[in-house]
């Protein structure tokens, strides 16, 4: 049922009139909500021009607060994905190992880190770094945020890698075995290269999750990322909390929307021009894919 | 070894009880709001469709932390909305639930929409041929079948929700993550134990949920 209009008939004159009434009622409700919100804001003097204008007029707002904050967000996210990718690939391959003494412990580690909230790992890493290392307290939040993100996302990426490899038809392994490749060669030269293309959309979507989770580090550990700048801005520009949070949220939405669109474009492109034999792992909502990603049963023995 | 638990200084079970309550209320709320959003997104009214699409895409791409912090900073501290008053503890709890509902409803909506896609076209065509209107087709024919096929994705949302309740620590709701932050700072000689205890608590909360609902999803799935 890809075309959802099958749920209702093509509107005739009466249905059109009814839709118009529904639209009007809905518009009025939305308007009331908006009016109530604006009224409440005006009541607390949050609509005053001087609270919003610095975001347009004052270039220092961007150069001193917002852009450095955004760069810190991107820095933590980039570091996390760069470290988590190889680690996740290793864990994923380890879980596919035929030796139970490898696959069992790796599987336990992956399941454990996926079952606990990323914030716990950040808090723990922050305290552990403070106690056992002499990392400067200036950069410690960054280390803690990246550690937490890496631990969590490496285990998620491990599952993506595993699903990507499992999605390849068993003929690939059989053919590679038939020409005398060793297990490591099969993985390295035959399975992984094909799995990577299948995994790309899911990996880009995971980047969205990482970007969103960096905000946790700002709110709880005081890492100077985008959300954390709200506090600094409101301290410097006179209690314009609503304006600052709106702008910050819009930046996050734009950034993540870009990544999401890129992921679905990639997915569509890979589906159309598919040369590898495997399926394309869909990228949407990897945050919600807690269970093993669905794999066709006949894919691989 | 576990003497920090016996000291009576930390109410670990109490903190996890708050986590469970946050999860419970937010799960019910996001199920309802998510279903309404899904209804809007597949409905015949263009304005509601547009609202649903914009809402889902905007909220899903906002970090949950921003939403939760906004409920506290904007709704409570700036606009003075307390959601039925009470002490600051209750206000923080209700605001966190509100933020969690707003965020997770988008995932419920998307899961439901993909569930609606699994219902064969013939089902709603037959319903329309009987003369049922859109609301009847949706609530009597399509949604009951769609819900049965999305138990597994919804279980994933529930598990993610359980883990995401920790974000409420950002506005000072005294749940498990905030207690852990306090404990690791005070019990510096036992931080691995503290981490193990709190992590174990979350494993206990999430793993049975996943297993139970995985079993349910197999049982209720529509055989086609």
TrEMBL record, chain A:
Keyword Transmembrane: yes
Gene Ontology biological process: amino acid transport
Example of a GO MF term: transmembrane transporter activity
Domain of life where this protein originates: Bacteria
Record membrane topology: Multi-pass membrane protein
Residue ranges of the TM segments: 20-38, 65-91, 112-130, 142-165, 186-211, 241-266
Keywords on record: Cell membrane, Membrane, Transmembrane, Transmembrane helix, Transport
ABC transmembrane type-1 domain mapped to chain residues: 70-259
Subcellular location: Cell membrane
Stored CDD domains: TM_PBP2
InterPro entries: AA_ABC_transptr_permease_3TM, ArtM/GltK/GlnP/TcyL/YhdX-like, MetI-like, MetI-like_sf
GO cellular component, one term: ATP-binding cassette (ABC) transporter complex
Family membership: Belongs to the binding-protein-dependent transport system permease family.
Name of the featured protein: Glutamate transport system permease protein
From TrEMBL, chain B:
One annotated Gene Ontology cellular component of this protein: plasma membrane
GO biological process, one term: transmembrane transport
InterPro entries, per database record: ArtM/GltK/GlnP/TcyL/YhdX-like, MetI-like, MetI-like_sf
Pfam families in alphabetical order: BPD_transp_1 (PF00528)
Main location: membrane
Compartments it resides in: Cell membrane; Membrane
UniProtKB keywords: Amino-acid transport, Membrane, Transmembrane, Transmembrane helix, Transport
Residue ranges annotated for the ABC transmembrane type-1 domain, each copy included: 16-213
Top-rank taxon, per record: Bacteria
Its membrane topology: Multi-pass membrane protein
Record field: transmembrane: 22-43, 64-85, 91-109, 129-147, 190-216
Family note: Belongs to the binding-protein-dependent transport system permease family. HisMQ subfamily.
Record's protein name: Glutamate transport system permease protein
Organism field: Streptomyces radiopugnans
């Amino acid at each position: 049922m890809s075309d959802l209009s099958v749920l209702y008939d093509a509107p005739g004159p009466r249905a059109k009139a009814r839709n118009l009434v529904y639209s009007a009622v809905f518009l009025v409700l939305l308007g009331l909500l908006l009016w109530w919100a604006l009224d409440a804001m005006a009541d607390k003097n949050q609509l005053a021009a001087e609270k919003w204008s610095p975001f347009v007029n004052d270039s220092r707002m961007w150069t001193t607060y917002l852009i450095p904050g955004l760069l810190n967000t991107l820095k933590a996210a980039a570091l996390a994905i760069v470290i988590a990718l190889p680690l996740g690939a290793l864990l994923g391959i380890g879980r596919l190992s035929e030796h139970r003494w490898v696959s069992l412990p790796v599987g336990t580690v992956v399941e454990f880190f996926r079952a606990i909230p990323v914030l716990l790992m950040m808090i723990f890493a922050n305290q552990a770094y403070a106690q056992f290392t002499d990392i400067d307290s200036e950069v410690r939040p960054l280390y803690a945020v990246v550690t937490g993100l890496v631990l969590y996302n490496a285990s998620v990426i491990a599952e993506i890698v595993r699903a990507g490899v499992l999605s390849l038809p068993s003929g690939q392994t059989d053919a590679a075995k038939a020409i005398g490749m060793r297990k490591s060669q099969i993985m390295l030269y035959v399975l992984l290269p094909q799995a990577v293309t299948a995994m790309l959309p899911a990996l880009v979507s995971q980047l969205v999750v990482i970007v969103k989770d960096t905000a946790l580090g700002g709110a709880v550990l005081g890492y100077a990322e985008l959300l954390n700048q709200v506090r600094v801005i409101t301290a410097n520009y006179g209690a314009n909390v609503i304006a600052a949070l709106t702008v910050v949220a819009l930046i996050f939405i734009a950034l993540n929307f870009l990544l999401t669109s890129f992921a679905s474009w990639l997915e569509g492109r890979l589906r159309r021009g598919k040369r590898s034999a495997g399926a394309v792992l869909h990228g949407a909502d990897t945050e919600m894919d807690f269970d093993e990603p669905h794999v066709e049963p006949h894919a691989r023995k | 070894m576990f003497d920090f638990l016996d000291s009576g200084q930390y109410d670990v079970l109490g903190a996890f009880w708050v986590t469970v309550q946050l999860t419970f209320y937010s799960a019910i709320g996001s199920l309802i709001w998510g279903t309404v959003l899904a209804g809007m997104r597949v409905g015949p009214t263009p304005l509601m469709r547009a609202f649903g699409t914009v809402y889902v895409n905007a909220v899903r791409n906002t970090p949950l932390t921003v939403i939760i912090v906004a409920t506290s900073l904007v709704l409570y501290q700036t606009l003075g909305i307390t959601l039925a008053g009470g002490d600051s503890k209750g206000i923080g709890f209700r605001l966190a639930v509100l933020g969690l509902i707003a965020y997770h409803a988008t995932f419920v909506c998307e899961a439901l929409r993909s569930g609606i896609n699994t219902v064969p076209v013939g089902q709603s065509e037959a319903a329309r041929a009987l003369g049922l209107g859109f609301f009847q087709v949706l609530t009597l024919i399509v949604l009951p079948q769609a819900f049965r096929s999305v138990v597994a994705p919804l279980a994933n949302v529930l598990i993610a929700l359980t883990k995401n309740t920790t974000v409420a620590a950002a506005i000072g709701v005294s749940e498990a993550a905030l207690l852990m932050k306090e404990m690791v700072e005070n019990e510096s000689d036992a931080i691995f134990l503290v981490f193990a205890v709190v992590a174990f608590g979350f494993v206990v909360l999430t793993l049975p949920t996943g297993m139970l609902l995985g079993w349910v999803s197999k049982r209720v799935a529509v055989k086609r």
